[in-house]
Amino acid sequence: MKPHVYVACKIPDETESYLAKHVQYRKWEGPGAIPYEVLLEELAEADGLLTSGNKIGLELLSRAPKLKAVSTMSVGYNHFDLDAMKERGIIGTHTPNVLDDTVADLILALMLAVCRRVPELDTYVKQGQWKKGDNDVLFGLDMHHKKLGIIGMGRIGEAVAQRAHFGFGMDIVYHNRHRKPDAEHKFGAKYAEMNDLLHEADFVVLMTPLTPQTRHLFGRNEFAQMKPTGIFINASRGPVVDEEALTEALQQGQIFGAGLDVFEREPVQPDHTLLQLQNVVTLPHIGSATAQTRNDMAMLAAENLVSALLGADPQNVVPELRK
Ligand code: DGY
Question: Which positions, given as ranges, span the membrane (predicted)?
Answer without folding.
Answer: none
